[in-house]
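User: I'm putting together notes for a lab meeting next week and I want to include a structural view of one of the chains we've been expressing. I don't have a solved structure, so I'd like a prediction I can at least talk through. The sequence is below, exactly as it appears in our construct file.
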Amino acid sequence: QAQLVESGGGWVQAGDSLRLSCRGPRDVFENNPMGWFRKPPGKMSELVASMTAFGDTYIGDPVKGRFTISRDNAESTVSLQMNSLRVSDTGVYYCAAVGTSLWGQGIQVTVTA
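Assistant: Thanks for the context. Below is the predicted structure for the 113-residue chain, given as structure tokens.
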């Protein structure tokens, strides 16, 4: 069964940076836009950023200017560089093949004041 595996989460202070990475099957990366969703505590999931196999990107307004998404199709990875983290960025972050049911298990990011 196809699987996406996230890494890189953790506990940081506001203003710090973190880099999330996700690895999965090559065919998934070749055929789908890849994205990062997050679920803040008590709120619904939201799309943070996504990137097509051709390099077209979407960055959500709450993170624009602070977060960057990148992908390496040859390595079947997608990464999310998160700078200037805020307490409001706290949540569980999920890697996903956008538009499919293929999601990772999620990784916790906690930002303290």
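A couple of points you could mention at the meeting. The chain has a mean pLDDT of 95. The helical segments are 26-31.

User: Perfect, that's what I needed.
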